[in-house]
Amino acid sequence: MDPESQVVLHPLTLHREDGEVLVGRPDTDVFVALPELGAEIITMLGSGLPIGAIGDRLRAAHGADVDLDEFLGELLAVGFVKAVDGHDVAADGGRLAGTEWNLFSPSAASIIFSRPAKALLLAIVAAASVILLTHPSLLPRPGDLYWTSSSSVVIVTTTAFGIVTALMHESAHVAAARSYGITARLSLSTRLADLVVQTRATGLWSVPRRQRYRFYLAGMNCELALLSAVILARASLASATPGSRFLGAASVLLVLRLAWQAGLYTRTDLYLVVMDALRCRNLFNDTVAYLRFRIRTAARLIRGRPGPALANPLDAIPRREHRWIKAYAFVMVTGSILAVGLTVLYGVPFIARLIPSTGHEIVSGSAHGHWAMVADGAITILVEGSFLALFFVTFIREKIRTPDR
Question: Both 11 and 118 in a single domain?
Answer without folding.
Answer: no
